[in-house]
Amino acid sequence: MTNRISEIVVKAGARRSEVVCFEHRRGDHREQRLRIVLEPGSELELQELHYGRSAGELALQIDVELAQGARMRHAAVLDDPGGGRFTTERTIRLAGQAELEYTRLSCGAASDREILHANMEGRDSRFRHGALLLVEPGRHAGLELEIAHGGRRAASESLCRCIVSANGSGRFAGRIRIDPQGQGADARLRNDNLLLHETARMETRPELEVYADEVQCAHGAATGALDEAALFYLRTRGLTAPQARAMLVRAFASRISDAINLADAQTMAGTILNRALRDDGPGRLAA
Amino acid sequence: MSAPLLDIRELTVRVEGKEILSGLSLEVGRGEVHAIMGPNGAGKSTLAQALAGRDGYGVSAGSMRFDGEDLLGMSPEERACKGLFLGFQYPVEIPGVSNMYLLRSALNAQRKAAGQPEINAAEFLRRARQEASRLKLKPELLKRGVNEGFSGGEKKRNEMLQLAVLKPRLAVLDETDSGLDIDALKVVASGIRALRDGQRAFVLITHYERILNLVSPDKVHVLAGGGIARSGGAELVQELEAAGYETFLREAA
Ligand SMILES: Nc1ncnc2c1ncn2[C@@H]1O[C@H](COP(=O)(O)OP(=O)(O)OP(=O)(O)O)[C@@H](O)[C@H]1O
Ligand SMILES: [Mg+2]
Fold first, then answer.
1. Which of B11, B14, B18, B21 for mutating ligand 1's site (highest number of atoms within 8 Å of CB)?
2. Domains along chain B?
């Protein structure tokens, strides 16, 4: 068992750009911690990259704290064809006027689970969250999410999309909680899922708990197969069935993958999608 | 004499267990423009979708041949690559796939099937923009998702843009004229006239005389009671305008 703790602290008013790599190795059983602190008015662009081939259990704890007026763009990508079980516990705290944009794309590991708690304690804090879970055949991915609005006029927007292949399963349990102090909250929570095969499974539970009265909230979920009418339309234009499927899956993914626009993470995300959606051969998702 | 471009014989089509077309026959020769009219629910779109190869539009009897080849065993994309184009009555919205990207992918798929190299990107852009401006389709619609948030008329113009870029040998336009304003209708008609080269053929499914006055079809058919109930020249349109479909419905009943 390896235990590692690392920390990134961005000093008040400073701007930084960081890449943190986690290599998953066969036979690793480990826990790691990463603490990220943004002092007042600081900015951070963070790329969190997970790759390699896991086996066994991996646990990661990430704590993110943004002080007053801090801003962070965070792209996380996981690409792991191994058979490990990967769990991330992520806590986020946003002080007044702090802004966080966090997007994660995951593809792989036998099981990939993220448990995300975001506390929007500060007034006028903003959180934009996107998650794209590509679930390859026989694998599992899940997101448990709670966004708590404690500060006045905090705004959160969360979109999770899962693409589930044959014998794969996905799980989304998302909750927005608006505390009594969270007046003026604007909160949106959405989960859309694409099942690529009749044996693909998805469990979804979007929830809203509101203890304040001046709020704007929306939550919803939808799960379905590829749109037959769209597939037919594309094929009548000359695209083969696999090409048409890949095009539609990519379009579904693009709402989130387009938000991964930091260099290395973007390259990695592009590689994952190209491999999963190859239309000239047996792509792992579109086939 | 060579075989007609499209030869449909005694076609029977069932949708969801219900027989919609019962022994329909229709021949369209090279270079011809045919109009198909008929009451709502008669099966005009069913015919169009069956021609394009839609799943679930089961052909239980009869045959469809395109340029002498049997369409029945062909996938929708094979039909498209042979030069059959369907302009949809209800074009599908596909968010996340840019209109331009689809157009280029479609053109390249068809070129590949014909053993041609991919089109040069700059040449493609030039052509697509030129056709779009001819159709008065706003340039920003090229970048948007396919038909995403397009108005009814914009969707129809977009079908015409695909037609103009793909240049099929046979275009079946299912009410492409519906929902078009007068200017767009003229543009569509002139587009059709421009593509009439003595080889290309058109089947216009329509409810309105207006488009037919602009393109002068060679033949007009009435689809009712599961088949072609009547065929004639352009004069049939006036007759229908005056008398409606009453008689055909009674005959079919
Ligand atoms: N998927 C379907 N399931 C059940 N019935 C269908 C289906 N598609 C078409 N039909 C039925 O088939 C018949 C023919 O429909 P079709 O759309 O071909 O008519 P149409 O001639 O194109 O009418 P319109 O002029 O209104 O466009 C209708 O009665 C319609 O309800
Ligand atoms: Mg119709």
1. B18
2. 6-252 (3.40.50.300)
The shortest CB-CB distance from A229 to any of B81, B92, B105 is to B92
Q: Is the pLDDT of residue A287 over 60?
A: no
What is the residue range of A186's domain?
Answer: 2-226
Positions of E strands within A150-196: 155-164, 169-178, 186-195
- Regarding the beta carbon of B18 and ligand 1, being less than 6 Å apart is answered yes
User: Tokens 């009265």 identify what position?
Assistant: A213
Any idea what the Cα angle at residue A77 is, between residues A104 and A193, rounded to 5°? Answer: 45
Over range B99-120, report the average pLDDT.
95
Q: What is the reported pTM?
A: 0.92
Residue A63 domain-assigned (yes or no): yes
Predicted-complex ipTM score: 0.95
Answer yes or no: are the C-beta atoms of A127 and A93 closer than 8 Å. no
Q: Would you say residue A142 lies in a domain?
A: yes
Q: Ligand 1 within 6 A of B20 CB?
A: yes
Number of structural domains in chain A:
1
Which residues place a Cβ less than 5 A from the ion ligand 2?
B 44-45, 89
A235: nearest CB among B75, B85, B91: B75
| Alpha-carbon torsion, ordered B88, B201, B193, B184, to 10 deg | -10
Three-state DSSP state, B184: helix
pLDDT of residue A2: 47
Does residue A268 lie within any of the structural domains?
Answer: no
**Residue B115 has which token pair?**
């053993």
Q: List Cβ neighbours of B27 (8 Å cut-off, separation of 6 or more).
A: B4, B6, B7, B8
Q: How far apart are CA A8 and CA A19, in angstroms?
A: 11
pLDDT in tens, A112-137: 999 999 999 999 999 999 999 999 99
Nearest CA in chain A to B101: A247
Nearest CA in chain B to A232: B54
Residue A282 is assigned to a structural domain of this protein = no
